[in-house]
Structure formats: structure tokens, C-alpha cells
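Human: I would love a firmer grasp of how sequence relates to backbone shape in proteins. Could you go through the record with me and say what the backbone is doing? Here is the record:
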Amino acid sequence: MGLSLFFAERTACLALAFVSIVSPTEAEPAAAMIEKGAIIYQDYCSSCHGEELRNTSGGVTFDLRRLRPQDHDRFVNSVLNGKTQMSPWRGVLDMQQIESIWAYIRANVDR
């Protein structure tokens, strides 16, 4: 009986963990973060990287649609420290704003 109780408890914990992962309340903050990222992108990034991620610079600026999920650290580093013609945004954008921009990019590129 002790062993079956152990497995029952483990199953309940796993079920609870799964429910918390797919909970609708998790989607709300993600949606809010994406929306915030869209606004920040429009205010700070679109003049160089294009409206709604549509880069029309002809290769002068990096097309953010080329970023892949594994490029997150590279993205953050480029935003904070600048790269080639891009000025650093350290002290202008905080990490929450940068992560919101990343969420906006991922939401549009990954769909």
C-alpha cells in the first residue's frame, strides 16, 4: 500500500505541474508581454529594423526575423552593447523591456 500511495502522490504532482504549465493565466502575462514588446519595438526599433519587423533597409540593418530561439543571448548582448552601426541601448532599455521586445519578435517569427 505504501508503494501505491507513493505513485499516486507522484502522479498527482505531475498532473498539477502540467496544469500549471498550460494554465490560461500563464497565457495572459505572455500576451501582455508581447503587446508591451510591440509598443517598445515601435518606439525604439522600428525606425531601423522596420515597421512590424518588415525590414526594408536592403541589408543595412539586421532583419530581426532571422533570429532563432537560440539567438536570445546574442540578441540581448547586441541590444545592451550595440553592434556595428547599432548604438547600445544599455541604460535606455531595461531587461524587462528587452525581454518584451524578444517576446514580440518570437511571437511574430514563430507563428
